[in-house]
Amino acid sequence: MRLSSILMASAAFVTANVLVSQSSFAAAASAAVPTVADAIGGVVTGPKGPEAGVWVIAETEDTPTRLIKIVVTDDQGRYLIPELPKHKYKVWVRGYGLVDSQHVDATPGKNVNLTAVVAPDAKAAAQYYPANYWLSLIEPPPVTDFPGTGPKGNGIAPTMATQQHWLAHMTEGCMLCHQLGDVTTRTLLNNNEEGWSERISKARELGDVAVGNLGKSYSHDMQNNMTRYGLQRGLKMFADWTRRIEKGDIPATAPPRPQGVERNAVVTVWDWANGGQIHDEISTDRRNPSTNKDGRVYGVSPSTGYFQWLDPVKNEAGQVGIPGIGNGLEHDINAYPHNPMMDQKGRIWATDSSRGRQINSAAERGEKINAPLGARAPYCYDGSTKYSKYLPMPGNNSSGIILYDTATQKVENIPACYSTHHLAFAYDKDNTLFFSSPGGDTWGWINTAVWDQTHDAAKAEGWCPHVLDTNGDGKITPDMNAWNVAGKTADPTKDTRIRAGGYGMDAHPKDGSMWYASNSPSVPSAVARLSVGANPPETCMTEYYEPPKKADGTYVAFDTRGIGVGTDGIVHASFGSGKIGKFDRSKCKVLKGPTATGQHCPEGWTFIDVPGPKMGKSEANADWFYLNWVDTYDTLGLGANMPLTVGSNSDALIALMPGDKVVNFRVPYPIGSFYSRGMDGRIDNPNTGWKGKGIWASQGKFPVWHQEGGDEGRGPQLIKFQVRPDPLAH
Prior knowledge:
This protein has 730 residues and is an alpha+beta fold. It has 3 domains: 3-126, Carboxypeptidase-like, regulatory domain (Immunoglobulin-like, Sandwich); 131-246, no CATH class; 260-723, Methylamine Dehydrogenase, Chain H (7 Propeller). The chain is built from 11 helices and 41 strands. Strands 8-6-3-4-11-41-40-39 form an 8-stranded antiparallel beta sheet, with no helix packed on it. Strands 1, 2, 5 and 9 form a 4-stranded mixed beta sheet that branches. Strand 28 and strand 29 (526-531) form a beta hairpin. Helix 4 packs antiparallel against helix 6 (215-229), helix 5 packs across helix 7 and helix 6 (215-229) crosses helix 7. The longest helix has 29 residues, at 3-31. The radius of gyration is 27 Å and the shape is globular. The termini are far apart. The relative contact order is 0.11.
């Protein structure tokens, strides 16, 4: 027999044995997958056998709003998708190193084996990577180009003092609203500076389903943010990035497949909000996660003025319009709800950043507006309350508070004397609701018990300036004229008033303090501790802690927006530069005195690098960690006091496990559907283990049409994460 014939025969024999072996394996493994009435299970195999750590996706359009469930295969390629309503599903396989398999029709109660499809080349495989892997191809200016010398020098704006300032602007100026590196942002017909200039000049029309009347405003923001880089230098960087991708550049490394506990995740995805943008969601009272069991989850659409809701039991969604201020409208598109929280009664409280815009819009329509609506109420500045006597707050009524009673369906607009942006309930008998202020010079609150009794904002509200105890006497000098002003010559015998632009915030569960992430300026940013004391406002006190400086004058971490506090008192802050910071105030050697202005407690900080590619050759992670939260009550299933953050540019919920191990729970479909801002956890039934609880979060990007599937008006998505004991638990 000729050698070629022998080799062909041997090859055929080996191939046949491999096929028999794979078939036998699939049959044996499939027999080990339980058949469950409300589940679909089976085995995923590829050319080399079982496919471990790949996703199996089940999708149905038969529910009132589209429903998707996603699980991960175990080390034998087995999967089980639990708790599926009785409908028809399309089921398929997606995974790193693969392209999508053929969709298979399936119904609960029947197991289905699936065949994975290996990607024909690296470029095809990379189309399924999260956006941060593609953003890693961008090349920010090197450290040696800073500080910028302007258009007549190196083209970088002089305000960019260090590369850290440039990198922070990438997150704060661009990734603030959408992912960078998704298929929409990395694809451009005209990949030059002119093409990018045209891209950022485009705007959605008035009344757009996603961005309402703010299309031109967002376009202006993009143009202004590009200018802050140094216009031509910024355009050149982005154009170079997309040109190289067009010519075939792909990420240097592939994301790892889910491992270990990541394979135990069950991810449930619903469409909601009718194509409108969602900023944040809330499912329960964070202080008592059994509030609102099995109830609706609520979100806010800031660009279009709606409360959105989703019923996870009925799989249906709807919305409630937010009324205008003084204009008689049941729904005002110019309302701008920003961040919601649920109280112990199941009511939704939200910040409102639009009072001025609603008033101006009504005036443009020729509607009569009462004069007081355009300015803060007299009690804010006339000395009639102890707060307005201590710190008068005149000026325009640009923000306020919205209260939605979910039982009566009534929406109220409550005025505020201070800026409102993010909010958190204290652990006190009055259910006091505190607010962060992006302006940074004051912080305020509303005593919700007093509000319920009186409906009188003057009696219910309070506010304080940000003042540090820099004279070290343990109290704040009552005379505000005796304070230092930050940035000017400091007198060590005086206390110091500062601006501390506030964003995300959280309540300390035990000592009554409030903590917030101070993100202005974004380099270095800081965490701030707020205490009202026994007799506010005179006893109000602020403490301010920055990330430590490095030897070269830059910072260990920078750009924080999120913060969470556990029952152990440890503060967790997510930094856009790519780190999770843990701050332990009990380790601080200095809490007050003339040096207590930010850099006085390096010993309180610990920083954990989050794995993932960097932006080019820079120090910054190509992901962005927006808000974070501590899962105090083990609603995810990884243990109490588990720090969580969101990888807004990587479609991931990120958990910091014991030993500071970082794990990622990704949402692989639709790609780009998990650009999230915040999250919370709810317990629906404490007696059913993992099935009775979970973490809730929503897509939060403004251009929801950037997700996989394009501008179909079906998104955004609401996502529920659960972690079961093993990949076959049901």
